[in-house]
Amino acid sequence: MKSVTVVGAGVIGLSIAWRAARSGWAVRIADPAIGRGASHVAGGMLAPLSEGWPGEDGPLEFGAESLRRWPTFVSDLGADGLITARGALTVAFDAADAEDLRTVAEFVTARGHEMEIVSRRDVKSLEPAVSHNVRLGLLAPAELAVDNRRVVAALMTAAVSAGVDLTEDRVDDVSALGSDQVVLAAGWATARLCPSVPVRPVKGEILRLRARSGSPAGPTRTVRASVNGRSVYLVPRVDGLVVGATQYEHGDDTTVTVGGVRDLLADAERVFPGVADYEFSEAAAGLRPMSPDNVPLIGRVDARTVVATGHGRNGMLLAPLTADAVLAELDGSALPEATSASLERFSS
Questions:
Q1: How far is CA 116 from CA 80, 286, 337, in A?
Q2: pLDDT tens-place string over residues 289-302
Q3: CA-to-CA distance for 244 and 319, rounded, in angstroms?
Q4: Contact 287/188 with Cβ under 8 angstroms?
Q5: What predicted TM-score, i.e. pTM, was given to this entire model?
Q6: Is the dihedral of CA 334, 339, 343, 348 positive or negative?
Q7: Alpha carbon distance 344, 216 (integer Å)
Q8: Between the CA atoms of 278, 218, 256 and 320, what dihedral angle is there, to the nearest 10 degrees?
Q9: Model pLDDT for residues 214-267, shown as the tens digit of each residue
Q10: DSSP labels for 220-257?
């Protein structure tokens, strides 16, 4: 039986390991902090359309293709409660942001994806919890949100059931691994094992807020907005909301800052005034693995080693397509739908 070691046990590494084991590989995962990295901190938005922007065709199409795979991915995992919201609504508070929503809608719909500009009245009809000060909205009915921690737990269970050997080993030397193949899916730390891969850590802070007895009902869809030039999103959970996220180029720092928490709470309250009654449950920071062009880095660096990193804020979203692309690489081929993530674009 062919063997593969997957270095990294976030949503990307776990998805690859699970799918490889189901395909007949003997799989070992090595990660000293299984499931406790960026995937543990994620908001769980599956929102490639809402993040579309003219000129960024690669991220849009890669994300949309992975979103299309998510229902089957969830079905194969066989776990309950993974999807927490269906549909996403981006709202604008001023004329400039409203014009940006029209730009996104025009760009995304021209590429065959469903989005709809909705009036202030329609925003209030769709999401009564949202502030009455909203000027315009952009609805993406196909987008989803998932509970990131339940997804990671389900992947761990599915991987073990498929025969994956989960170990908390730290890998410092890829050449010392005894398997036939190696997949480097260690997020930003992949660059430590393979310095030629252009990936860097970008810090993001996120909050978890829990509804109390009698708290106003929150949004049922993911709601996104720009407030004072800062991006904010509110993602539904069974017991409340996830609010995110800041973004800093601070190396490998995962300290939660007062300023970050202050801004996220203020911006969330601007979007959903009733959030002030919620319980403050958790503040955390993770390190997103960012590529230079915000498209993942997937492909071979040598005959034995495949890289899968650079997923930025969208590790959850991009896990199904990434797993399919890596399995194709392990089997000696390339997945056409993942062409935009090829390492060759940085080969020079």
A1: 30, 32, 26
A2: 999 999 999 999 99
A3: 20
A4: yes
A5: 0.96
A6: positive
A7: 50
A8: 140
A9: 999 999 999 999 998 899 999 999 999 999 999 999 888 999 999 999 999 999
A10: SSEEEEEETTEEEEEEEETTEEEEE---B--TT--PPP
